[in-house]
Amino acid sequence: MSATDIGSIYATALRNTRALEKQGLEQIERQLSGLEQYPDYATVLRRHAEATKTQIARLEQALATLGESPSTLKETVTKVAGSIGAVVHAAAQDETLKNLYAGYAYQYDQVAAYRSLAVIAERAGKSDQAKTFRQAADEETKAAEEIAALIEPVTSTYLDLTLAGRKADS
C-alpha cells in the first residue's frame, strides 16, 4: 500500500488513536494514585479508565480486521510524552489542578480524533467501525462534561486544603 492509499491512511489513524488512548490511560492511572482528597474526581477517572480500555480494545480489533498491529514506536513515544507531562505537573505546587485542566483539554483532543477517525473509516468502507468511533466520540464528550463539572468543586477543595496548611496534591 502506498502512503496515499485509504487503507494505509486508515491503519495509521487507528494506530495514532490507539497510542493516544494508551497515553491517556497511563495518565489516568498515574493521577488516581494521588486523589484521596478528591473522591468524586477519582470516581470519574476510574469510570473513564474502564471506558478507555474498551476503546483500546475496539481500536485493536479494527486494526486486526486490517491485518495490522499497533505501532510500538508510536506507543513508546506517546508513553514518554505522557510521562514527561506528568513529571512537569508533579513538580508544580498545584499538580491536581494542572492535571484536571490537562484532562479536560485531552478529552476534546480525543473527541476530535474519533470524529476524524469515523470519517476515515467511512471512506475506507468500514461503516460498521465508523459507528463505534462516533460512539467513542460521544463517550469522550460525556467524560469531558463530567470533568468540566468537577473544575469548580475540585478547585474549591484544593483551596480549602492548601489554605488550611494540609496536603492538597499527591
Question: Would you kindly provide a written description of the structure presented here, covering whatever features stand out?
Answer:
This protein is mainly α and 170 residues long. The chain has a single domain, classed as Ferritin (Up-down Bundle), CATH 1.20.1260.10. The chain is 82% helix and 0% strand. It contains 5 helices and no strands. It has helices spanning 6-32, 39-65, 72-91, 95-123, 127-163. α3 (72-91) packs antiparallel against α4 (95-123). The N and C termini lie far apart (48 Å). The model is unreliable at 81-92 (pLDDT under 50).
Structure keywords:
170 residues, mainly alpha, Ferritin, 82% helix
* Arithmetic mean pLDDT: 88
In total, how many domains does the architecture comprise?
1
Structural class computed from helices and strand pairing: mainly alpha
> How many E strands?
0
Q: Estimate the global geometry from the Cα principal axes.
A: elongated
Quote the CATH topology.
Answer: Ferritin
Q: Which regions are unreliable across 5 or more consecutive residues at pLDDT < 50?
A: 81-92
Question: What is the secondary structure topology, with strand pairs?
Answer:
Layout: H1 6-32, H2 39-65, H3 72-91, H4 95-123, H5 127-163
Write a concise synopsis of the structure shown:
With 170 residues, this protein is mostly helical. The protein is built from five helices and no strands. The model is unreliable at 81-92 (pLDDT under 50).
